[in-house]
Structures are given as structure tokens and as C-alpha cells.
Amino acid sequence: ASCLVGSEMCIRDSYNEDLQPKSLGKQFSLSPRELNRILLYQVEMNFSDYLNYIRINRASELLLKTSHSIMEIALEVGYNSTKTLTRNFLKFRSMTPSKFRQTIELQNTN
């Protein structure tokens, strides 16, 4: 059980670092395959999807609460480019980060 909770929490606490399933698995004496199996059981996502999900949720918060540029937010949540942030944002939010920010701003002014 500690592996289940530990690996999930470790991803949530270190989402903005260069996390890799191999190195994270090593911390819990798990292979990348075992880590993915545990995460699929725990959060119904594999390592990569869960990491991106956490990053996109944090990016969404930053888009709402700050005026940071998309690039600053991308770097802050652990992506190396706005292209990667945008690709994952589209996957989880079905819109670009800019569109997300505009939509929220429009809702707040109405």
C-alpha cells in the first residue's frame, strides 16, 4: 500500500521536475511496468498520463490566478516548451491554454 500511495504522491509533489518512470520506480523498488500497473489501479492512468494530468491541472490554476505568460507557465509546471504544454492541454481540456484563459476571463466579466 505504501508503494501505491507513495508513487502517486511523489508524482504530485514533483510534477515540475524531469520525472521518469524508471527513476521513480527505483525509489519504490518497482520496475517501470510495475509502477504503471500500480498507477493504473490507483488513478486509472499510466505514469505519463498521470504526470501530464497533474501538470495540466496546475497550469490551469496558474492561467486562472496569474498573468504569467504561457511559456512561463509551461516551464513552471515542468514542460520545456509551449508546444508540449499546448498539446497536453488540448488532450485534457480540449482547448489551448490561451483559449482556456480567455474563456475564464469572459465568464468572469459576464
Report the principal-axis shape: elongated
**Biggest sheet statistics:** none
Task: Quote the beta fraction.
Answer: under 5%
Which secondary-structure class do the elements indicate? mainly alpha
Q: Which stretches are poorly predicted, pLDDT < 50 over at least 5 residues? A: none
Helical fraction equals over 70%
Distance between the termini: 47 Å
Radius of gyration: 15 Å
Helix run count: 7
Helix and strand sequence: HHHHHHH
Query: Mean of the pLDDT scores?
Result: 89
How does this structure look, described?
- The chain has 110 residues and is mainly α.
- It is 75% helix and 0% strand.
- It is built from seven helices and no strands.
- The chain has helices at 2-13, 21-27, 32-43, 47-65, 70-76, 82-93, 97-109.
- The mean pLDDT is 89.
What would a concise description of this structure say?
The protein is an all-alpha fold and 110 residues long. It contains seven helices and no strands.
What are the main properties of this structure?
elongated, 110 residues, mainly alpha, 0% strand, single chain, 7 helices
List the helices and strands and how they pair.
Elements: H1 2-13, H2 21-27, H3 32-43, H4 47-65, H5 70-76, H6 82-93, H7 97-109
